Structure formats: structure tokens, C-alpha cells
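Structure request: Beta-barrel assembly machine subunit BamA, Marinoscillum furvescens DSM 4134.
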Amino acid sequence: MHKYLAISLILLLGYQAQAQIVFGRDKSANSGLSINYSSPKEYEIADISVEGVQFLDNNALISLSGLRVGDKIKIPGEGISSAIKKLWRQGIIGNVEIYANKIEGEQIWLTIRLTERPRLTKYEFEGVNKSQKAELKDKIDLVRGKILTDVVIKNTELSVKKYFEGKGFLNAEVNIRQERDTILANSVNIIINVEKNQKVKVKNINFYGDDNFSQAKLRSKLKNTGEKPRLNLPKDLIEKTLMVLNPKNLFYFLTHRKEVTDLELKEYLAEQVNVNVFKSAKFVRTDFEEDKETLIAFYNSKGYRDAEIVQDSVYSIDRKYLNIDLHVNPGNKYFFRSIEWTGNYIYEDEFLNRVLGIETGDVYDLELVNKKLNYNPTGTDISSLYMDDGYLFFRVNPVEVGTTEDSIDVEMRIYEGPQATINEVTISGNEKTNDHVILREIRTLPGQKFNRSELIRTQRELSQLGYFDPEQVNPVPQPNPVDETVDIEWQLVERPNDQVELSGGWGGRFGFVGTLGLSFNNFSLKNIPHFDKWRPLPMGDGQKLSVRMQANGRRYQSYSLSFNEPWLGGRKPNNFGVSFNHSSQRYITFDNTVLSQLQLSGITVSLGRRVTWPDDFFTVSNSLSLQKYNITGDTYERAYGFQGDSHSFTFNNTIARNSVDNPMYPRGGSSLSISASFTPPYSLLNNKNYDNVDAEDQFKFLEYHKWNLDFKYYLKLVGNLVLAPRAHFGFLGSYSDKVGVGPFERFSLGGDGLTGQNFLLGTDVIGLRGYENRSIRADIENGVDNGTVFTKFVMELRYPVSLNPSATIYFLTFFEGGNNWNDFDEFNPYNLYRSTGVGVRIFMPAFGLLGLDWGYGLDPAPGALEVSGPQFHFSIGQQIR
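Returned structure:
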């Protein structure tokens, strides 16, 4: 059958394409060509040409086809079919046609005629907002010039749908349409139209097959999948009451009453009320799958080691809600029958059992076993016994060796191994901080035995420096069992920690006050003359330099400069600090006449050191401070009781303990500080009769003793939810009743606690949210209403929304109370001004910690008749009290 006819071979039926794939002779070729399709014949390929392409490379296409000049192929045969398949699989071809345009003897000339798929010029979204567009661009794989295949279009549609399903839009509809580009040939624009529709939320989560735990208990174990909030209790109680009051039902109710158990009451309340604000009601499949694993882990922890979810159903109720049904088979509850140890030579079985803390008859909990064996954050575990003594290669494997209907025998198989010596310690990622600043904090040094606790402690110390992202301080031990050594690499990620404070605020009668502050928290004093080491300032030695200025023309001016060297001398952690300050407040009339003035100038020198007793979390610091107050004019004389100069020479001693794990968002640990300040007891050393001394002479040299106690504790509840209680106390006393307590160094309570915005020189400003600044006043004594005794208690609940080092953000809710007294005899820790509220904290490296709180004062402030009510407060930096 010899015909000059193109024969179509339709291949690859599984592809959803409109391409025509053919082999035959070219109709425009010489009519003398003859191909016998009933009798295959072998030809040698003399030449291969490509037609119809604009952007693709001809040689590359020929290579992809698998056909080569000189190859011998049968026509018709698999060679041509294979070439067509190979080209089609590239996904860049619309139509494929292979023609024979010349045959001479046993040689054949082939032409591959192709139609390219269109290329993408640009893409747009419809039906989404600006932030969603930005996020979607990261999710889809579309770039200008990309060849648009059916697979690309389908994957784009699926990616967009998946994105919105993760946002709770399970019924989102995505339609992608193509529009031909009128400028570029064979190019198209695509428009991705999204119809989000309403979010789909979980209405009810139902559990079947187990009565061991309440529905509410099981729902609480689904960490990321929750029900929509509901409050059906009032309606249900009214309906039930009306039903009971019906005469037909009243007699039955009175004669068939039964006692309701606590479990039944909890179940009823859980069905009627759901106000969980920490769990979203949107349905995300990946979160749901993780929650199912968490649910099984909960069952395992209660002894149900064979628990399984035999069936789960997620079904729509309507376009807005869906229900989830989980069928659980808990299986038998198991208990420990015996625990045996093998391979242990260093410690006896009895000692290991005491550390393990699991007794025969305890509920079988493999997760608890692994925690007690490998890492117990709240106490000692078996691994720490060995690894803190150098046994880095230690391994322990719990094996079930016997099982009955409700009991399990466990054998702890131990491999102790040799002790490992630290060989080399390296650091990476410190682009600005010098090596010696890091090395002096490292407790795992070459030549020492490996110690896991010291490794964890070093991780904490490096996080506390503030130069690195605490979430990415990563020690990487690299053990070498051959020579029984280990190398440790500390992988660090630097973060910006210099801070700029540029703000303004209303300072009462002082008007608008501007503030400019600069803090260089990783400064290098010795590199100041070496300009080649500036990055862009001299830094890297861990020193701190701070400059701060506040001003409002002539009415208020304040300047301060401080320098801190945490390792004076470079060998021991002796913290040296020096600071200078000068402030001036003036009472000025409208014609710019100064009626009264208060000036404060001072210098403080401090030296602190770390101590190892009672433990190595303690520090002791001492400081000497010289302050000079100068008061002129009647206005400030009435406020402070005298005019003239007053000098304060103070010695301070502070004992502190800090085991907080993370300075920005603590999840564990505590902080305790006890501080005592003393001036010389001038009245006890001279023979002056203070009964006949005027106020200017009486307060020329201030004398007092001052005590402060600050305590903070952080408790991780679940996930990153943290409970943070605090307690504060302060007392200012005098050596002699004849002299009494002076007008300075007292306590001012109430408001946001920002010293700079209260402008109280010589006063400790303590915040109390929910009340106006300075509103918690003590009884007036000699014209002074600041107190000599204060106390404050705070309870905060914190939850982060971002732990990114460039922007750490967390929300909080608080309840606090405090008071201020003028005499220790009046002190009553139960007589407090209380408040509650919510707030947010934002840490940005360039600006430090910023806070905004809304507080509601629950009591009337002194002198007020009504409760303080709502107040907004703004704070800068870590508030000590």
C-alpha cells in the first residue's frame, strides 16, 4: 500500500493535551517519496532538521528526541514513537510532527515540526488583598518567561487553594484564565481569580468508643483544632426550666430526680459553653493530622499503649461549618510490673531506680520513661548522670521483654562506653563579636571531660549576652569514638543590638519634651583609634556605652553618659561601670523669668563579680555614688522643704541571682535582687543638736539607709504560654528620728513607671497600671507626698505571636496591686490598690523593648471618690518594677 499520505500515530493517550503527534511524509516534499507502512524497512538517518520553534534551541531538541544522524531506525517502528514520547515528556511542546522529506536508497532525511507552548509574560491576582498577594507570590512557582504547561497551571491552582485552605477557606474557588499578550509573540498573561467564600469553622468535635475521659478532656488535647466559641447555657437553662414547669413534666421530675455526678456536670457545661480564645476554630488538615498524633500520645501517657483512632470523619454541615467525628479504640490500660537494668557497671540498680522515679504498679507511660532516661528539664535524668561525667557515648534503650493482659516488664539496656574528652572548641557565625567575648562565657573547654549540663549552661550564658538570637544558639558536638574525644562547634547567629531612642511626650507643666538616646551594647573602647575595625562603629568587645538627652528648652534638661565593662582586666567576670548624670528643672514664667530651679548632678562607680556560692547564678556588686542637689526659689522649696545644696554620698551593695533562660521572652528560671544603700550616719558621728537646725543645714548631707527587694519567676504552662509572677518591696529609713528621712530617694507609685516622663529628680518611680502617674501618694509629710515604704505584686500571663529576633512580639494579661506609705508602721501588704488589664510588648533591636498596656484601676486612688477606671500606659525598656 504505497500512498503519498501522512499517517497520524496518536500516542500518549494519558495526557490531556490537544497536540497532534504524527509521522509520515511531508506533503510539500517530492511526490516520488514512497513509504510502505505494511512492511517496515530500516533506514539510516542522513539528516535531522527542526521547524516551528522560536525560542528553543534546535540542537537541544534533537538531542532530547534521542535521534542522531547516522542511527539506523525502522520505519514504521519504535524509534519514531520513542522520539515523540521523549519530546512530549519535556512539557514544553504543544504539537509534535515528524516527517520524512527525502529518501535516497537506505538513507532518510527527517524533519521535526514543533509548536511551542506559550510563555508567561506576567500574572495578576483578583479577589485577594495586598498582604495575601505577597504571600501567594512565595507559594507559587511562576516567573516571567516560564513555559506554561497544563501541569504548571494545575500546580498553581492547587497551591493557591492550599494556601487558602490553610487560612480556613475550605470552599475557596480558583479560576485561572489566559489572555494572549498583544506585544510578545507566543506569550500570554494569566489572571488568577480567587473566590474565597466564607471561612469554614469547626462546629462540633465528637468522640466515640471511649468513656475513660470526658469529651472536654479529649478536645483539649487537640492543640490546633478547636470548636467555634459558643454560649448556649442561658438558652438551654431557660428551655429546660420551662419544660420542667410544664404540669405534665413536673410530677415526673419531682419523683424521678437523680444525683448528677461531677463528670456529668462537666460534660454538660463543656457542651453548652466554649470560650477558648487560644485555639482557632478553622480547620487545617495538616494541623488536624498532627492533633490526632497528639491525642494518641495522650492515651499512651495514661497507660493505653495500644490506643488507636480507628476512624475519623470530617463532613460539612453547610457552607460555614463542619463537624469532626473521631472513633477511638483505647485498648487495655497497662502498668509497670518490673524494671530491670543491664549493662550498668558504674551505678547500682537501686540508685538508677531512685533517679528514674518509676515504681512497680505505676501507669505505663513510655513518654515519661524516655523523659526520665534522656532529658528531664525539671530534674535529674539517667543520661545526665553519665553525660555530666564525660560518658558522651552513653546509650540506654528501654525494651519490653514481657507483656500480660495489663502489665509490662521493661528491661533498660545500657551501653556506658568510655569517657569523652573535649578536643577542640570552635565558633561560627560571629561576624561582629570578637572570639574572646564568646570564649570567656564557654564552660566546655578543651582537655575537660564532656559535661552536658555545662553545655546547656553555656547555651544560656551566650543567649543572655544579647548579641545573638537566643533561638539559634546551637552547640553541635562532633564525637570521635576512635580516640574517645569530642569536638564542639558553637553555631551562632548575630543580631543587631544597638538601640536608638527618639521620642517625644507631654511632660505636664513642662510641655513637650524630646528624648534622644543611643546605646551601643557591643562596644569596643580599645578599637576607637583603629578605624579599620569600625563596623561601622568600634564594636565587638562586649562593652556598653550609652548616651541619653532630654530637653524642653530651659524648663527641663537632662543628660547622662554611662560606660560598662563586663570583664575588667579580661580574666575574670568583674563588671566595672561608671556613669555621669546632670539634670535641671526650672519653673519659668511666661516672660521667661526663672522663679525656681532644681538641679541634680552625680557620678557613680560600680564593680560587680560573679560568685559560686550558694550557686554560680549569683552575683555581688558594690557601688559608690556622689549626688549633689541644688534648690533655689520658693516653688521647689515648698515641694522639698528647703533651699540650698544637699549632698548624698552613698555606698550600695546588691546580691542578685538570675537563672532566666531567655532575656527577651523568658520561659523558665527566676530573678532575685536584694539591694541595700547606705550613707554615712552623720547625725551619729557629730554632736549637732538637730532640734534647732534649719532645714537647709539639716539636709546639707543626706543620711539614710535604703532597701529594695525584687523577685521574678517564669513558669512555662503549655507550649509558649508563660506565667510570670513578680514581687517588689522598698524601704527608706533614717539613722535618727531627730533628722528623719529627707525629701529625696523616696518612692513614687502609679502609672507607667517611666522616669523620664515624670521628671521626678531624686525619686524612684514605680509603675502601677490602671492609675495615673504618681496618683498613689503617701500621707504628706513636710510638704512631701512621696513614700518611704512601698510594695507591689504582679501576676502576668504571656503568649508570643513572634519570636523572630528582628521583632519579638508577645501579648499579656495582668493583675497587680501596690501601695505607698510614709512610715513603716503604716505598712500593710494586704491594703493594696488593685488593677487588671492587657498589654503588648514589641522588641526591635534598634529601639529596644516597647510596651503598650490598657489597665483598669479597681480602686479609687487616694483622694478620689470613684474607681480609677481605664488607663493607657506606654513603656520603654525592661521595667525593673
